[in-house]
Amino acid sequence: MSEWLEHSVQVEVAVPIDQVWHLWQNIELMPRWMKWIESVQIVEGSPELSRWKLGTRTFEFTWLSRILQEIPHQIIQWESVDGLPNRGAIRFYDRKETSIVKLTIAYEVPGFLALLMDNGFVRKAVEGTLQADMERFKDYALTAAASQPLPTTSDDRS
Fold first, then answer.
1. What is the largest CA-CA distance in the chain?
2. What is the domain extent for residue 14?
3. Total domains, the chain
4. Which residues, at least 6 apart from 40, have a Cβ–Cβ distance to it below 8 Å?
5. How many whole angstroms from its chain centre is CA 55?
6. Angle 120-147/17-25 helices, nearest 10 degrees?
7. CA 31 to CA 37: how far, in whole Å?
8. For the whole model, what pTM was predicted?
9. DSSP letters spanning 120-137
10. Cβ atoms 27, 51 nearer than 8 A
């Protein structure tokens, strides 16, 4: 028997929604701000599919992910279709001069492991890591916006 564990974190970034959206939409950039993500590669010929590699000092996981829903400036939702079972969404909230970015991830673990991982210490450690990733994203977005402002038009995936 297995269970799903879910975590949500968010950050407010002093960057317009167009620029925040552009950075998250380009998922191959994620290793720049997500500590444990080693690589993300779009599958050639299938822009909705991507190969992910997550690594820590102790573990390495890979999976194939599919974009389920993409609404510009609102949400990117995904699920794994092979490898590490996971799903989630990144949601965007336009506050005119700033943007709120909310990340929700869920992953499947064996039931006995879920009991260990869902305790307060492990939950806080995972959410602390994800929050630190979001803070790194905030810094990355601020630097990117200062060095290369994007036009304020919609930038949909090609």
1. 50
2. 2-26+66-147
3. 1
4. 27, 28, 30, 31, 50, 51, 52, 53
5. 15
6. 110
7. 5
8. 0.86
9. HHHHHHHHHHHHHHHHHH
10. no
Give the CATH number for residue 106.
Answer: 3.30.530.20
Cβ within 8 Å of residue 116, ≥6 positions away: 122
The alpha carbon of residue 72 and the mean position of all alpha carbons in its chain are separated, in whole angstroms, by 15
Buried b or exposed e, range 95-132, using 16+ CB within 10 angstroms:
eeeebebebbbebebeeeebeebeeeeeeeebeebbbe
CA 142 to chain centre: 17
The one-letter amino acid code at 133 reads D
Q: Is residue 141 part of a domain?
A: yes
Measuring CA to CA, which residue among 8, 48, 52, 6 is closest to residue 25?
Answer: 48
Q: What is the mean pLDDT of the chain?
A: 89
* pLDDT at site 71: 97
Tell me the pLDDT tens digit for each residue of 77-129: 999 999 989 999 999 999 999 999 999 999 987 766 666 666 677 778 889 99
Q: What is the predicted pLDDT for the residue at 62?
A: 94
